[in-house]
Write a structure and sequence with these properties.
single chain, elongated, 5 helices, 0% strand, mainly alpha
């Protein structure tokens, strides 16, 4: 049996972290006692939890699904922030499908792809795929914290 490479271990770690944090996002969205609070903000906060969930789903479907997995997904980024009052169950279904597909894609990345240039530029610069996946994981964590904060402050 061939030993698993460091690169394949890294893809496994990336897939596990993405799976963990998207499951936490699912749990946070589910934990809102009032569905209407998914679309509220407070103070200087401008993005409600519902839009943050739509944004992460769109971002992952774009950067992991379409870019790495060739799913054909076409992103509507403006809608991620403009759409309001999307039913929670619809958001959770899409989030679950995105989580499953993204984990599948990351888990099947070929040897040599980690250090390859990511197929899309980031802020007009070339970055490695490893760099970009690390960025997307920290992006998820950032918004997950915002969703958690909004839930706690809006619902006490």
């Amino acid at each position: 049996m061939k030993p698993v490479s460091v690169e394949q271990n890294m893809w496994t770690i990336f897939a596990q972290l993405l799976d963990r944090d998207l499951q936490k996002l699912h749990d946070e969205i589910s934990a809102f006692s009032e569905e209407s609070n998914l679309w509220k903000t407070t103070g200087a906060i401008t993005n409600p939890a519902g839009n943050l969930c739509l944004h992460l789903t769109g971002s992952l479907n774009h950067f992991i699904g379409a870019t790495l997995g060739n799913t054909g997904f076409v992103r509507q980024r403006e809608g991620e922030f403009a759409n309001k009052n999307v039913p929670r169950l619809d958001m959770l279904r899409e989030l679950t499908a995105t989580r499953i597909k993204s984990v599948e894609i990351l888990s099947s990345m070929p040897e040599g792809s980690l250090e390859a240039t990511f197929p899309r530029k980031f802020m007009e610069q070339d970055v490695s795929t490893a760099w970009f996946i690390t960025h997307i994981l920290t992006h998820i964590s950032y918004h997950l914290g915002q969703v958690n904060y909004l839930r706690r402050v809006l619902e006490g």
